[in-house]
Amino acid sequence: MNIPNKLTVGRFILSLVLIILMVFPYSACGWTPGILGTTGFTLIDLLCAIIFVVGAITDTLDGNIARKRHLVSDFGKFMDPLADKALVNSSIILLAVYKPDYLPAIFAVLFIIRDLAVDGLRFLSATNGVVIAANKWGKAKTVAQMIVLPFIFLNGFPLDYLLGDKTYIFTTVLIAIALVLSLISGGIYLYDGRAVFSNMNGESQTGNGEKKTDGR
Fold it and tell me: How much is the pTM?
């Protein structure tokens, strides 16, 4: 397994560790994570933020290394976006559950629906021999998510020193920007893939016609 693919697999592992850290029942073990000094976040928050940032860095590294060293593989093409989804979407869902003041649940729902729609379209496109290229809006969405989610893991730190109890407004605005970019890029993907839906509709009509002919 080459280096880019190892980084991709590593991102899956980081995602799993992050999920375990977030959902582990610490109180059942007699320990409750406390706030670290005057920071406003716990040790678990800090570890999750670090893991997320490291995962985001590997996302950048594996693609760059694969292209520069000509190590692009079918495994990487298939698994890299899945690893990205595992890291980002699991973080979004968990943050919506555990930190709803900073990431409203409706935002998480819209992020997930958009990704499901785009992934479904890409699958249908691939089965029809059509490749839908990534667009700049999608890349901008990913960058925006990578920037705002660590802030949310840390409850807005260090912005909370400046904004106080209004910090949630800033993080909500940032995640809203990421959501808008996500929906725009999703709309572009769907528009670019409209030919796939047209082909499917044509095949469906042909199939119905054939059934009627057989019935006669």
Answer: 0.85
